[in-house]
Design goal:
The protein is built from no helices and twelve strands. The protein has 125 residues and is mostly beta strands. The chain has one domain. Bound molecules: zinc ion (2 copies).
Length: 125
Amino acid sequence: MARTLRNKILKNTRLATNYGGWIYCTNCNQNIGYLCYVTYDWLKLNYECNCGSHGSAIIDFQDSLCGRSTYKKLITEKNRFCCADDGTPLITLLDKKLRHYHLEICCKECDKIYRQDFTQPEADK
Ligand SMILES: [Zn+2]
Ligand SMILES: [Zn+2]
């Protein structure tokens, strides 16, 4: 089940394990989300933590595909973002701890690329 990383570029960000688990902001050490280990094909994430730190994560694997864009939106189950087609749980991002984020994640099951943007309402003021 182990996968061979191709790119793993983390900025101001730490992962609990090699390519999954809890996601931490390295400035304030808060967990800002959770990345499911084996269900995503690749990940691109940019965010601003509530502490003001800007973080990002780019992860893909030797066998990652480029994926296909979809107009669909990720569905949310118990605060976890899941693939709209196969229900695969992919990632959790904790809205309350983030001022904004931009997420691109590809589902390994169906190779669909989901894009999601979030801005905390208070962050605009
Ligand atoms: Zn932080
Ligand atoms: Zn899928």
